[in-house]
Model the fold of this input.
Amino acid sequence: MPTMKLKQRVVIFGLLIVGGILLVTTGVINSHLVWSNSEKEDARRLISSGHHIAFPRKNLDESNYTSDTQNSPEAQKQLNNVDTAYKVDAGVPAQPAAEPLRVNPIKLRPTKQYERNLYPLPKPVSLNFNLEDMLSERPQLKPHRKYKRRKAGHEGDLMLYEEKPGIKLTSWELFHNHINEYGLYRKDDPNVNNLIKDLQTKRIIGTEQKSGGTQLKLIMEFSNDGEALFKPMRFQRDVETDYNHYYFSDYERHYAEIAAFYLDRVFDFRRIPPTIGRTVNMTYDIKRLANRKLAKTFFFSPSNNVCFHGSCSYYCDSNHAVCGYPDLLEGSFAAFLPPDKLADRETWRHPWRRSYSRRRKAAWETDDTYCEGVRNRTPYVNSRQLLDLMDMAVFDFIQGNLDRHHYETMDPYGNETFPLHLDNGRGFGKTWKDEIDILAPIYQCCLMRYSTLLKLIDFEKGPPLSQVFRKAMERDLAYPILPEKHFPAIDRRVTIILNTVNKCIQQKGFKEVVIDDKL
Ligand SMILES: Nc1ncnc2c1ncn2[C@@H]1O[C@H](COP(=O)(O)OP(=O)(O)OP(=O)(O)O)[C@@H](O)[C@H]1O
Ligand SMILES: [Mn+2]
Done:
């Protein structure tokens, strides 16, 4: 300091003052984006009285919108550290790491949770449903062998499973062959575990970037001819959605894709292809197998970690690179769905999609009768698809996923089939906020599938969803997939959904609200 010139001292002093002002103003902005104490109090009161909460919408404008570069991935910590950060020791829940939260966790569980008129359940209304049809399920996809067994030198790695005497197929072929109009796999299909094992262990023999979409993802090919969609880890698991980021500028979280699969399985929806966590060597498993265009985007970070960014429409430049430690990278691997020629997919706009704009609101946000229009139009009129939207709302609310703009169905089954719940990378971003808006289909239509209601009630009675869900994830190589702080949020959300349905039942009667379509 004594050797500093006066000019330098003035500059440093100036910087300190500007920094101080910035700190104070961000605090002020943030305080507008989280719940105030009185809002929290309101939420607590409303929820314990069984009402759904209409949260005051914040008026956001350009001034408090932060650009995405703020969230650039930092040099990643050692993968080992990541893996042990939330280790659960012999069933004792780990203490959540120090959280940068600005609000205290909110205890929303009502004390007298069983005093709702949901227990015991009256008889639900059944849709006109032909059980015969149900039992003789429509044919599965045409049995096929996806590829000729062409990979010379890889035959030894071709694990085949016996489908019927004399018919041996890979786990991928079985996965595709077992898809039916009710789900991607059957409840007790032993092939799911085989497929998971192959996703975790099979050698990677090919990689290419998947075109389309806003964020980097790769198609990985395995030594048994299977394929998976790979989404790389971008930051550590405890990094939550930036308070100033909209859902559409949020990064995708690879662990959210993994958790979504297990959550879907726990709910027995079977609408997500098996998705697991696995660590790859970026040099050996990606760069070595990449084409020139992809390989050219590899570089070393200043801390000598291997990074790459690929090419895509938004987040594929060196500011948004994916980095390993030094070249180990964890990611999500989702088993690839059947190719289009076998089962093309239909894409549907989600009626309750968000506006994807900072200023515009979607029609459903301002029109409480919005559901009437949806109910009366194809494909929702008299169709399972309307109830499927309620399931999707349950599923997305529990994850906090606001990014459900479209969904897909499998073409061979027409309109009366399950929706796929693909693209879950933006879930599990906030443990501190329940995005009540996601339940809009439920509270605007006042509708719920009977079987889903039963599942929610079971989870509330216990063992709680958090416990079953954690157990389901235990065997994943990327376990613990979610930091502990997510689990209380998940159970809290189950209660909020039940309270929302309960309010509908009080207004409209059980038979109007709860529909049993035997699914
Ligand atoms: N397991 C899968 N098998 C085959 N295709 C898939 C699978 N998962 C996703 N896809 C296809 O890839 C597309 C892109 O996937 P996804 O939506 O997860 O990526 P994204 O980068 O988030 O895309 P977007 O930016 O458009 O939301 C999907 O629309 C879907 O059709
Ligand atoms: Mn997406």
Summary: Residues 403, 423, 425 surround manganese (II) ion (ligand 2) (CB under 6 Å). Residues 23-36, 42-115 have pLDDT under 50 and may be disordered. The longest helix spans residues 6-33. The first strand starts at residue 125 and ends at 126.
